[in-house]
Design a protein that fits this description.
By secondary structure, this protein is of the alpha/beta class. It folds into 2 domains: 348 residues, Alpha-Beta Barrel (TIM Barrel); 46 residues. It is built from 10 helices and 16 strands. The protein has a 9-stranded mixed beta sheet. A hairpin with a 4-residue loop joins strand 2 and strand 3. Helix 8 packs parallel to helix 10. It is globular. Belongs to the glycosyl hydrolase 18 family. This is chitinase. One of its GO terms (molecular function) is cellulose binding.
Length: 426
Protein backbone atom coordinates (compact mmCIF):
# COMPACT_ATOMS: atom_id res chain seq x y z
CA UNK A 1 0.00 0.00 0.00
CA UNK A 2 1.38 3.41 -0.98
CA UNK A 3 1.64 6.33 1.44
CA UNK A 4 -1.32 8.06 -0.21
CA UNK A 5 -3.42 4.89 -0.02
CA UNK A 6 -2.46 4.41 3.63
CA UNK A 7 -3.29 8.04 4.42
CA UNK A 8 -6.65 7.81 2.69
CA UNK A 9 -7.46 4.58 4.53
CA UNK A 10 -6.66 6.17 7.89
CA UNK A 11 -8.75 9.22 7.03
CA UNK A 12 -11.66 7.01 5.98
CA UNK A 13 -11.43 5.17 9.29
CA UNK A 14 -11.41 8.44 11.21
CA UNK A 15 -14.35 9.72 9.18
CA UNK A 16 -16.33 6.59 10.00
CA UNK A 17 -15.78 7.37 13.68
CA UNK A 18 -16.69 11.06 13.43
CA UNK A 19 -19.69 11.10 11.12
CA UNK A 20 -22.13 9.28 13.43
CA UNK A 21 -21.70 12.12 15.93
CA UNK A 22 -23.14 14.60 13.44
CA UNK A 23 -26.89 14.72 12.91
CA UNK A 24 -27.85 14.38 9.26
CA UNK A 25 -30.79 16.79 9.21
CA UNK A 26 -34.13 15.75 7.75
CA UNK A 27 -34.00 12.19 6.42
CA UNK A 28 -37.10 11.15 4.42
CA UNK A 29 -36.20 7.49 4.91
CA UNK A 30 -36.09 7.79 8.71
CA UNK A 31 -38.78 7.46 11.38
CA UNK A 32 -36.61 9.18 13.99
CA UNK A 33 -36.50 12.77 12.71
CA UNK A 34 -36.88 15.32 15.49
CA UNK A 35 -37.84 18.92 14.72
CA UNK A 36 -37.89 21.65 17.37
CA UNK A 37 -39.08 25.21 16.74
CA UNK A 38 -36.75 28.01 17.80
CA UNK A 39 -37.32 31.75 17.97
CA UNK A 40 -40.37 32.44 20.12
CA UNK A 41 -39.00 31.74 23.61
CA UNK A 42 -42.40 30.57 24.80
CA UNK A 43 -40.95 29.60 28.19
CA UNK A 44 -40.72 33.34 28.69
CA UNK A 45 -37.62 33.77 30.80
CA UNK A 46 -34.87 36.23 29.90
CA UNK A 47 -32.32 33.44 29.57
CA UNK A 48 -34.55 30.57 28.43
CA UNK A 49 -33.76 31.05 24.75
CA UNK A 50 -30.10 30.89 23.75
CA UNK A 51 -28.80 31.83 20.31
CA UNK A 52 -29.58 29.34 17.53
CA UNK A 53 -26.09 27.84 17.30
CA UNK A 54 -26.26 26.81 20.97
CA UNK A 55 -28.70 24.04 20.10
CA UNK A 56 -27.18 22.75 16.89
CA UNK A 57 -24.54 20.53 18.47
CA UNK A 58 -27.30 18.39 19.98
CA UNK A 59 -27.28 15.21 17.90
CA UNK A 60 -30.87 14.31 18.76
CA UNK A 61 -32.26 17.35 16.93
CA UNK A 62 -32.42 17.19 13.12
CA UNK A 63 -34.65 20.07 12.00
CA UNK A 64 -34.93 23.57 13.45
CA UNK A 65 -37.68 25.80 12.04
CA UNK A 66 -37.01 29.47 12.85
CA UNK A 67 -40.22 31.10 14.08
CA UNK A 68 -41.55 33.37 12.69
CA UNK A 69 -41.80 35.41 9.55
CA UNK A 70 -45.10 36.73 10.88
CA UNK A 71 -45.99 39.07 8.01
CA UNK A 72 -45.39 38.62 4.28
CA UNK A 73 -46.81 41.70 2.52
CA UNK A 74 -44.53 43.87 4.64
CA UNK A 75 -42.00 41.20 5.67
CA UNK A 76 -41.65 41.10 9.44
CA UNK A 77 -39.34 38.86 11.45
CA UNK A 78 -39.99 38.16 15.13
CA UNK A 79 -37.56 35.96 17.07
CA UNK A 80 -38.34 37.14 20.62
CA UNK A 81 -35.22 37.92 22.69
CA UNK A 82 -32.93 36.84 19.82
CA UNK A 83 -34.04 40.05 18.12
CA UNK A 84 -32.07 41.98 20.74
CA UNK A 85 -28.96 41.05 18.77
CA UNK A 86 -30.39 42.42 15.51
CA UNK A 87 -30.65 45.92 14.11
CA UNK A 88 -33.09 47.15 11.45
CA UNK A 89 -32.56 48.03 7.83
CA UNK A 90 -32.56 51.78 7.18
CA UNK A 91 -36.05 53.17 6.77
CA UNK A 92 -37.75 49.91 7.72
CA UNK A 93 -38.68 47.83 10.77
CA UNK A 94 -37.27 44.66 9.17
CA UNK A 95 -34.66 43.00 11.36
CA UNK A 96 -31.08 42.65 10.17
CA UNK A 97 -29.62 39.70 12.11
CA UNK A 98 -25.93 38.95 11.46
CA UNK A 99 -25.78 36.67 14.52
CA UNK A 100 -28.55 34.47 13.09
CA UNK A 101 -26.79 34.58 9.71
CA UNK A 102 -23.63 33.17 11.30
CA UNK A 103 -25.59 30.63 13.33
CA UNK A 104 -27.52 29.28 10.33
CA UNK A 105 -24.30 28.77 8.41
CA UNK A 106 -22.65 27.08 11.40
CA UNK A 107 -25.64 24.82 12.03
CA UNK A 108 -25.66 23.75 8.39
CA UNK A 109 -21.94 23.37 7.74
CA UNK A 110 -20.72 22.07 11.11
CA UNK A 111 -23.75 20.05 12.24
CA UNK A 112 -25.76 19.34 9.08
CA UNK A 113 -28.98 20.65 10.59
CA UNK A 114 -31.96 21.39 8.38
CA UNK A 115 -32.85 25.02 9.08
CA UNK A 116 -36.32 26.07 7.95
CA UNK A 117 -38.01 29.46 8.04
CA UNK A 118 -41.50 29.16 9.50
CA UNK A 119 -44.05 31.57 8.06
CA UNK A 120 -47.16 32.62 9.96
CA UNK A 121 -47.69 31.83 13.62
CA UNK A 122 -50.68 32.52 15.84
CA UNK A 123 -50.41 36.29 15.37
CA UNK A 124 -50.38 36.21 11.55
CA UNK A 125 -53.33 38.36 10.42
CA UNK A 126 -52.86 39.05 6.68
CA UNK A 127 -55.23 36.28 5.60
CA UNK A 128 -53.12 35.20 2.66
CA UNK A 129 -53.18 37.08 -0.64
CA UNK A 130 -55.71 39.03 -2.67
CA UNK A 131 -54.95 37.14 -5.88
CA UNK A 132 -52.79 34.42 -7.37
CA UNK A 133 -50.61 37.12 -8.95
CA UNK A 134 -49.98 38.73 -5.57
CA UNK A 135 -49.17 35.34 -4.04
CA UNK A 136 -46.63 34.53 -6.75
CA UNK A 137 -44.95 37.93 -6.46
CA UNK A 138 -44.73 37.51 -2.68
CA UNK A 139 -43.13 34.09 -3.04
CA UNK A 140 -40.51 35.49 -5.37
CA UNK A 141 -39.70 38.26 -2.88
CA UNK A 142 -39.42 35.80 0.05
CA UNK A 143 -37.17 33.57 -2.05
CA UNK A 144 -34.93 36.56 -2.84
CA UNK A 145 -34.78 37.38 0.88
CA UNK A 146 -34.03 33.92 2.26
CA UNK A 147 -33.02 31.74 -0.68
CA UNK A 148 -29.73 31.92 -2.62
CA UNK A 149 -28.30 35.42 -2.97
CA UNK A 150 -29.43 36.96 -6.25
CA UNK A 151 -26.92 39.37 -7.73
CA UNK A 152 -29.66 41.33 -9.48
CA UNK A 153 -31.83 41.71 -6.37
CA UNK A 154 -31.79 44.74 -4.07
CA UNK A 155 -34.09 43.17 -1.47
CA UNK A 156 -33.02 43.37 2.18
CA UNK A 157 -31.94 39.98 3.56
CA UNK A 158 -32.59 39.57 7.33
CA UNK A 159 -30.19 36.63 7.56
CA UNK A 160 -27.56 38.08 5.25
CA UNK A 161 -25.91 35.58 2.93
CA UNK A 162 -27.21 32.59 4.89
CA UNK A 163 -29.64 30.44 2.88
CA UNK A 164 -32.38 28.53 4.68
CA UNK A 165 -33.06 24.91 3.75
CA UNK A 166 -36.73 25.52 3.07
CA UNK A 167 -39.98 26.99 4.32
CA UNK A 168 -42.58 25.89 6.82
CA UNK A 169 -46.17 27.16 6.90
CA UNK A 170 -47.78 27.65 10.29
CA UNK A 171 -50.94 29.53 9.37
CA UNK A 172 -53.50 29.22 12.16
CA UNK A 173 -56.44 31.09 10.66
CA UNK A 174 -58.17 30.90 7.28
CA UNK A 175 -56.09 32.15 4.35
CA UNK A 176 -56.65 32.78 0.63
CA UNK A 177 -54.42 31.96 -2.35
CA UNK A 178 -51.65 30.45 -0.24
CA UNK A 179 -51.53 27.43 -2.55
CA UNK A 180 -50.12 29.72 -5.27
CA UNK A 181 -47.59 31.13 -2.80
CA UNK A 182 -46.45 27.66 -1.73
CA UNK A 183 -46.37 26.30 -5.28
CA UNK A 184 -44.21 29.17 -6.46
CA UNK A 185 -41.73 28.59 -3.64
CA UNK A 186 -41.73 24.88 -4.54
CA UNK A 187 -41.02 25.71 -8.19
CA UNK A 188 -38.21 28.12 -7.27
CA UNK A 189 -36.62 25.58 -4.94
CA UNK A 190 -36.89 22.79 -7.50
CA UNK A 191 -35.31 24.99 -10.16
CA UNK A 192 -32.40 25.84 -7.85
CA UNK A 193 -31.83 22.17 -7.01
CA UNK A 194 -31.98 21.20 -10.68
CA UNK A 195 -29.34 23.86 -11.39
CA UNK A 196 -26.94 22.21 -8.95
CA UNK A 197 -27.90 23.82 -5.67
CA UNK A 198 -28.73 21.87 -2.49
CA UNK A 199 -31.98 20.08 -1.68
CA UNK A 200 -34.74 22.34 -0.36
CA UNK A 201 -37.76 21.31 1.69
CA UNK A 202 -41.34 22.44 2.14
CA UNK A 203 -43.31 21.70 5.30
CA UNK A 204 -46.50 22.75 7.06
CA UNK A 205 -47.81 22.57 10.62
CA UNK A 206 -51.57 21.95 10.46
CA UNK A 207 -53.81 21.38 13.47
CA UNK A 208 -54.73 17.74 14.02
CA UNK A 209 -58.46 18.06 13.14
CA UNK A 210 -58.78 17.16 9.45
CA UNK A 211 -59.08 19.02 7.15
CA UNK A 212 -57.07 21.91 8.56
CA UNK A 213 -58.96 25.16 8.07
CA UNK A 214 -55.87 27.33 7.65
CA UNK A 215 -53.62 25.18 5.45
CA UNK A 216 -56.06 23.02 3.51
CA UNK A 217 -55.78 24.82 0.17
CA UNK A 218 -52.05 23.97 0.15
CA UNK A 219 -52.45 20.45 1.55
CA UNK A 220 -55.37 19.49 -0.66
CA UNK A 221 -53.24 18.06 -3.45
CA UNK A 222 -52.13 21.40 -4.87
CA UNK A 223 -48.56 21.51 -3.56
CA UNK A 224 -45.87 18.88 -3.01
CA UNK A 225 -44.69 18.86 0.62
CA UNK A 226 -41.69 16.93 1.90
CA UNK A 227 -43.03 16.65 5.43
CA UNK A 228 -45.79 18.06 7.59
CA UNK A 229 -45.65 18.52 11.37
CA UNK A 230 -49.15 18.02 12.73
CA UNK A 231 -50.04 19.83 15.94
CA UNK A 232 -51.37 16.97 18.03
CA UNK A 233 -51.91 19.38 20.94
CA UNK A 234 -54.24 22.25 21.88
CA UNK A 235 -57.02 20.18 20.30
CA UNK A 236 -59.41 17.35 21.13
CA UNK A 237 -57.12 15.04 19.13
CA UNK A 238 -54.06 15.73 21.29
CA UNK A 239 -51.53 12.95 21.79
CA UNK A 240 -52.57 12.86 25.45
CA UNK A 241 -55.87 11.27 24.36
CA UNK A 242 -54.10 8.19 23.01
CA UNK A 243 -55.55 4.95 24.38
CA UNK A 244 -53.02 2.14 24.48
CA UNK A 245 -54.27 -1.01 22.81
CA UNK A 246 -57.18 0.68 21.02
CA UNK A 247 -56.75 0.31 17.26
CA UNK A 248 -59.65 2.69 16.55
CA UNK A 249 -58.23 5.76 18.39
CA UNK A 250 -61.34 7.95 18.06
CA UNK A 251 -59.46 11.11 19.16
CA UNK A 252 -55.76 10.72 18.33
CA UNK A 253 -56.66 10.04 14.72
CA UNK A 254 -53.37 9.44 12.93
CA UNK A 255 -55.17 7.16 10.46
CA UNK A 256 -56.93 10.07 8.75
CA UNK A 257 -53.65 11.91 8.19
CA UNK A 258 -52.03 8.71 6.94
CA UNK A 259 -54.89 8.40 4.43
CA UNK A 260 -54.22 12.02 3.41
CA UNK A 261 -50.56 11.16 2.81
CA UNK A 262 -51.42 8.13 0.70
CA UNK A 263 -54.37 9.42 -1.34
CA UNK A 264 -54.59 13.23 -1.23
CA UNK A 265 -51.06 14.58 -0.90
CA UNK A 266 -49.36 15.67 -4.11
CA UNK A 267 -46.33 13.78 -2.78
CA UNK A 268 -47.34 10.22 -1.79
CA UNK A 269 -43.99 9.85 -0.04
CA UNK A 270 -44.60 12.83 2.25
CA UNK A 271 -43.61 12.23 5.87
CA UNK A 272 -45.69 13.07 8.93
CA UNK A 273 -44.08 14.28 12.13
CA UNK A 274 -46.24 14.03 15.24
CA UNK A 275 -46.25 17.45 16.91
CA UNK A 276 -46.23 17.50 20.71
CA UNK A 277 -45.72 20.10 23.47
CA UNK A 278 -42.18 20.04 24.87
CA UNK A 279 -43.27 20.96 28.38
CA UNK A 280 -46.35 21.43 30.52
CA UNK A 281 -46.56 25.12 29.61
CA UNK A 282 -46.03 24.67 25.88
CA UNK A 283 -49.65 23.83 25.16
CA UNK A 284 -52.49 21.64 26.32
CA UNK A 285 -52.07 17.91 25.82
CA UNK A 286 -48.54 17.57 27.14
CA UNK A 287 -47.84 13.93 27.89
CA UNK A 288 -44.91 11.79 28.88
CA UNK A 289 -44.09 8.29 30.06
CA UNK A 290 -46.03 5.22 28.96
CA UNK A 291 -48.74 7.14 27.07
CA UNK A 292 -46.22 9.03 24.95
CA UNK A 293 -44.19 5.90 24.26
CA UNK A 294 -47.27 3.91 23.26
CA UNK A 295 -48.58 6.71 21.02
CA UNK A 296 -45.27 7.00 19.18
CA UNK A 297 -44.91 3.24 18.82
CA UNK A 298 -48.43 3.16 17.36
CA UNK A 299 -47.59 5.98 14.95
CA UNK A 300 -44.43 4.21 13.83
CA UNK A 301 -46.55 1.40 12.38
CA UNK A 302 -47.65 3.74 9.57
CA UNK A 303 -45.40 4.11 6.52
CA UNK A 304 -46.01 7.88 6.49
CA UNK A 305 -44.56 8.38 9.98
CA UNK A 306 -41.32 10.36 10.00
CA UNK A 307 -40.68 11.38 13.61
CA UNK A 308 -41.64 14.06 16.12
CA UNK A 309 -41.97 17.84 16.16
CA UNK A 310 -41.81 19.76 19.44
CA UNK A 311 -42.90 23.25 20.46
CA UNK A 312 -40.62 24.88 21.36
CA UNK A 313 -36.86 24.92 22.08
CA UNK A 314 -37.08 27.10 25.20
CA UNK A 315 -39.70 24.81 26.72
CA UNK A 316 -37.72 21.71 25.78
CA UNK A 317 -34.50 22.86 27.40
CA UNK A 318 -36.40 23.78 30.57
CA UNK A 319 -37.76 20.21 30.70
CA UNK A 320 -34.66 18.21 31.57
CA UNK A 321 -34.59 14.71 30.11
CA UNK A 322 -37.64 15.05 27.85
CA UNK A 323 -35.67 15.17 24.60
CA UNK A 324 -33.78 12.02 25.61
CA UNK A 325 -37.12 10.37 26.40
CA UNK A 326 -38.58 11.23 23.00
CA UNK A 327 -35.43 10.08 21.20
CA UNK A 328 -35.47 6.81 23.13
CA UNK A 329 -39.17 6.30 22.33
CA UNK A 330 -38.31 6.76 18.65
CA UNK A 331 -35.48 4.25 18.95
CA UNK A 332 -32.68 6.72 18.26
CA UNK A 333 -31.36 7.43 21.78
CA UNK A 334 -27.77 8.21 22.68
CA UNK A 335 -27.74 11.92 21.93
CA UNK A 336 -26.38 14.91 23.76
CA UNK A 337 -27.92 15.38 27.22
CA UNK A 338 -30.33 18.23 27.76
CA UNK A 339 -31.28 19.87 30.79
CA UNK A 340 -64.70 3.51 20.23
CA UNK A 341 -64.32 2.64 16.42
CA UNK A 342 -65.12 5.28 13.80
CA UNK A 343 -65.33 4.23 10.15
CA UNK A 344 -64.18 6.74 7.56
CA UNK A 345 -64.26 6.95 3.81
CA UNK A 346 -62.66 9.44 1.44
CA UNK A 347 -63.90 10.93 -1.81
CA UNK A 348 -61.80 12.99 -4.19
CA UNK A 349 -62.39 15.40 -7.04
CA UNK A 350 -59.91 17.32 -9.15
CA UNK A 351 -59.65 20.84 -10.51
CA UNK A 352 -56.74 22.63 -12.11
CA UNK A 353 -55.27 26.01 -11.29
CA UNK A 354 -52.76 27.62 -13.63
CA UNK A 355 -50.24 30.30 -12.91
CA UNK A 356 -47.15 31.56 -14.69
CA UNK A 357 -43.86 31.20 -12.83
CA UNK A 358 -41.78 34.11 -14.06
CA UNK A 359 -38.61 33.29 -12.12
CA UNK A 360 -38.28 29.90 -13.77
CA UNK A 361 -39.81 30.98 -17.08
CA UNK A 362 -42.21 28.06 -17.05
CA UNK A 363 -45.91 27.49 -16.51
CA UNK A 364 -46.75 25.85 -13.23
CA UNK A 365 -49.90 23.76 -13.06
CA UNK A 366 -51.42 23.19 -9.65
CA UNK A 367 -53.63 20.14 -9.52
CA UNK A 368 -55.89 20.19 -6.52
CA UNK A 369 -57.49 17.08 -5.12
CA UNK A 370 -60.22 17.93 -2.68
CA UNK A 371 -60.82 15.30 -0.07
CA UNK A 372 -63.85 14.91 2.15
CA UNK A 373 -63.58 12.68 5.18
CA UNK A 374 -66.93 11.30 6.26
CA UNK A 375 -67.49 9.99 9.74
CA UNK A 376 -70.07 7.39 10.65
CA UNK A 377 -70.98 9.48 13.69
CA UNK A 378 -73.61 12.19 13.42
CA UNK A 379 -72.41 15.71 12.54
CA UNK A 380 -75.70 17.56 12.73
CA UNK A 381 -74.84 19.39 15.95
CA UNK A 382 -74.05 23.08 15.94
CA UNK A 383 -70.38 24.04 15.58
CA UNK A 384 -70.55 25.98 18.82
CA UNK A 385 -72.40 25.59 22.09
CA UNK A 386 -74.37 28.17 24.00
CA UNK A 387 -72.48 30.82 25.91
CA UNK A 388 -72.91 29.30 29.35
CA UNK A 389 -70.71 27.93 32.12
CA UNK A 390 -67.47 28.99 33.78
CA UNK A 391 -64.87 30.81 31.63
CA UNK A 392 -62.51 28.52 29.74
CA UNK A 393 -58.76 28.90 30.27
CA UNK A 394 -56.22 29.47 27.46
CA UNK A 395 -56.09 26.59 24.93
CA UNK A 396 -59.21 24.99 26.43
CA UNK A 397 -62.08 23.90 24.20
CA UNK A 398 -64.88 26.44 23.77
CA UNK A 399 -66.84 25.07 20.82
CA UNK A 400 -67.13 22.50 18.03
CA UNK A 401 -69.53 19.81 16.87
CA UNK A 402 -70.85 17.82 19.81
CA UNK A 403 -69.31 20.16 22.41
CA UNK A 404 -71.68 21.08 25.23
CA UNK A 405 -69.45 23.04 27.62
CA UNK A 406 -68.84 26.72 28.13
CA UNK A 407 -68.09 28.90 25.12
CA UNK A 408 -66.93 31.87 27.20
CA UNK A 409 -63.16 32.32 27.37
CA UNK A 410 -61.35 33.73 30.36
CA UNK A 411 -60.06 37.26 29.79
CA UNK A 412 -58.19 38.25 27.63
CA UNK A 413 -58.73 35.19 25.41
CA UNK A 414 -61.32 34.68 22.69
CA UNK A 415 -62.84 31.58 21.16
CA UNK A 416 -61.21 30.69 17.82
CA UNK A 417 -62.47 27.81 15.66
CA UNK A 418 -59.83 25.77 13.83
CA UNK A 419 -62.46 23.50 12.30
CA UNK A 420 -66.12 22.58 12.74
CA UNK A 421 -64.91 20.05 15.30
CA UNK A 422 -62.76 22.21 17.50
CA UNK A 423 -62.71 25.77 18.85
CA UNK A 424 -60.25 26.87 21.53
CA UNK A 425 -59.48 29.90 23.70
CA UNK A 426 -56.51 31.86 22.38
Amino acid sequence: MSFSQSFLSRMAALTSLVLPLVSAGFDPSSKTNIAVYWGQNSYGQATSQERLSYYCSNTEIDIIPIAFLLAIDTPTINVANAGNNCTTFAGTELLDCPQIEADIEECQSSYNKTIMLSIGGATYTEGGFTSSTAAIAAAQEIWAMFGPVQASSTVDRPFGDAVVDGFDFDFESVTENTAYFAAELRALMNAATAAGDKEYYLSAAPQCPYPDAADNDMLDGAVSFDFIMIQFYNNYCSISTFVAGDTAQPYFDYTTWDAWAQTVSANPNVKILVGIPANTGAGSGYTTGATLEAALQYSETFSSFGGVMMWDMSQLYANTGFLDEVAADLGSGGGSPTPTSTSKTSTTTSTTLRTSTTASATTTTLTRTSSTTLSSSSSSSSASASSTGAPVAEWGQCGGIGYTGSTVCASPYSCVCNSVWWCQCE
